[in-house]
Amino acid sequence: DIQARNLLESLLKWVASGDLKLSAEDKRGTLGQILARDCPRDGLPSEATPPPPLQETDRFVAGDVDRPADQVPSADPAPKAEERKLWLGVLEAEEGERLKSLRASIDAFQAHEMPTRFDINRLLVSALQAQITLLRMSRVFPASAARGGLNLTSAASHGPTMELARELRLCWRALGVTDFTLTALLRHALPAAGQRTSISRGELFAGVLPRLRRGVDPKALKALATEGSVFAADIQTWNLLRSVRKWIASGDLTLSSEDEQGRLGQLLATDWTRPPGSRMPPRT
């Protein structure tokens, strides 16, 4: 009888009815994250409830990474008024692709009690690809010229962006990465992604700028779409686990005791090899 029952469905009903309460710690676990995706109550996000507002981590992701001065050999292109809807359509399609990829990676990660290095690296790759897409959304939702980056007020009303940001939070939570460490990790990963692709992306927009005339520029629209593919293809070949180990070894990235208890931290601890004169950063 138990074999035939859908226990996950039963759990969803018990949580939805209020008969079963999940603590904050429960919600951080694999089961809690799965329930969070489907349960419309108990404070868990679902398709039926609005996602939480964008946070400071999201502001950093979209606003302090791809600086033209040191990573792109041209000014950062932005759509003219008559192009904005077309650019938004391109970026929305990219958000959909990243969301699908991220969910597939999360599902593969959560399918194993002990995720493999491949599962974790795949999830890191999908997460970084999605973070880059959030960054690119600042092209159509720009903040003030002084601040730069994504306008959180405008982005908060855009469903696809919010959905991708929400799934990203589930991803980093599943990996056990704290917000403080995530910000530090992104300070290395996202600029590195910009530097690795700067030449090819610069070539894409070389014939587009300056953009002073009115009307729709097909070359700019094509360059925008191709730029996303360039980012994604390069990140796909990246061994992010190796890069994270390198940043830790150099002292540029330190994991807290809470981080070390997460899936990513546990994996880094089990196969950590100490380079001469270095050590795993101490617990804080």
Automatic annotation (TrEMBL):
Region (Disordered): 37-80
Biased composition (Basic and acidic residues): 56-69
Name of this chain's protein: Uncharacterized protein
Source organism of this protein record: Cystoisospora suis
